Amino acid sequence: MAHFNPWHDVERGENAPAVVNGIIEIPKGSKGKYELDKDSGMLKLDRVLFSAVHYPAAYGFIPQTYCDDKDPLDILVICSVDIVPMCLVDAKVIGVMQMIDGDEEDDKIIAVAANDISVNHYNDISDLPPHTLLEMRRFFEDYKALEHKQVTVERFMGREDAYRIIEDSIKLYHDTFQKDADGVTTAKAESLKA
Fold first, then answer.
1. Which residues are annotated as a binding site for Mg(2+)?
2. Which range marks the domain in which residue 162 is found?
């Protein structure tokens, strides 16, 4: 019997890329770096952040997406309440933060909780209070500093760029994975050669 894996078995959302399902791994304010264990589908504690910083928004991923860093596409969801880990949230995409982590490109989609009246009026990243973006930039540039790892936030871009990045990650997912007759998702043989 196949086991359920949130990355492969949850839909990305019927209105993607404008509104996607975000699966939250880390609540806003956490110092714990939780992430999906890709094999078991469980949430695991990767590490406690070395620096005296905490996540500026709920953090997770968009299911059925894949990026060059071999992970699903990351998403930050702004919401007026704490979103618990492994919660599914309708996330209205408003932009993207492009950064370099080590030597790898690492895009973070920025969204607002579609069902939160206090934030769902934001339609583009340019609508956010400037301090919100400064907090995000500062967090990601600082959170690995004491691990002697460099993260550079290159730029923030609006929702049309975010839509394109989501669509690219959906295509890469389809090019990389397949479901067998039992509904089990596996990597396509040709994708393993890359």
1. 69, 74, 106
2. 6-178
185 located within any domain: no
Residue 193, in any domain of the structure: no
**Model pLDDT for residues 126-146, shown as the tens digit of each residue:** 999 989 999 999 998 888 777
**Binding site residue list:** 33, 47, 59, 69, 74, 106, 143
Gyration radius (Cα) of the chain, Å:
16
Inter-residue contact 63 to 33 (CB < 8 Å): no
- At residue 16, what is the residue type? A
What is d(CA 128, CA 125) in angstroms, rounded to the nearest whole number? 6
The pTM assigned to this predicted structure is: 0.93
CATH code at position 29: 3.90.80.10
